[in-house]
Amino acid sequence: MNKKEEETIRYYEKELGWVPPFVKILAKYSPGSLDGYLTMRKEVLKEPPEGALPRKIKEMLFSILDCVTGEVNGAKAHAKAAIDAGLTIEELVEGFVIAIMVTGITTMCKAGVEAINAAEERLKERNE
Predict the structure, then answer these.
(1) pTM score > 0.85 for this model?
(2) What is the DSSP code string of 66-78?
(3) Cβ-proximal residues to 43 (8 Å cutoff; 6+ apart), any chain
(4) Which of 51-54's residues contact partners 24+ apart within 8 Å by CB, and which partners?
(5) Residue 70 and residue 46: Cα distance in Å, rounded?
(6) Terminal CA-to-CA distance of the chain, rounded, Å?
(7) Domain membership flag for residue 78
(8) One pLDDT digit (tens) per residue for the chain, 128 residues
(9) Same domain (yes/no): 59, 26
(10) What is the domain extent for residue 91?
(11) Residues 113 and 84 in one domain
(12) Alpha-carbon distance 33 to 65, whole Å?
C-alpha cells in the first residue's frame, strides 16, 4: 500500500471509525476514482459558511440514504457521526419517519433500527 492509500484509509478511520470495503477496492485498483470520490465527499462535508448544511444534517442524510439502499454498516457509521456532530436521537428518528413516508417501513426494518441503535450507543459513550 502506498502513502496516499494509507492516508485515505486513515481518513475514513478518523471520519467514520471504519473503512468501507469499496474504499479498499478503489484504492487498490482505481485510485483516481477514489480521489474523485474523496474530493466530492470532502467538498459536500464542509461546514457553514463554506457549506450550506451543518455536518449533523449531512451525516443524518448519509445514514438515511444508506438505510434506503440497504447499506447497514454505512448507515450505522453515519448515524454515529451524526451524533458526534450534535444530532439528537429525536432528530435522527424524525428523519427516518420522513424516509418511511417516502420509501416505506422497510427502510426502518432493514437498517434504520440498527442505525438508531448505533446512534444511541454512541450517545451513551459520549455521556459516560
Answers:
(1) yes
(2) HHHTT-HHHHHHH
(3) none
(4) 54/85, 54/86
(5) 26
(6) 37
(7) yes
(8) 788 888 888 999 998 888 999 999 999 899 999 999 999 999 999 999 999 999 999 999 999 999 999 999 999 999 999 999 999 999 999 999 999 999 999 989 889 999 999 999 999 999 99
(9) no
(10) 55-127
(11) yes
(12) 21
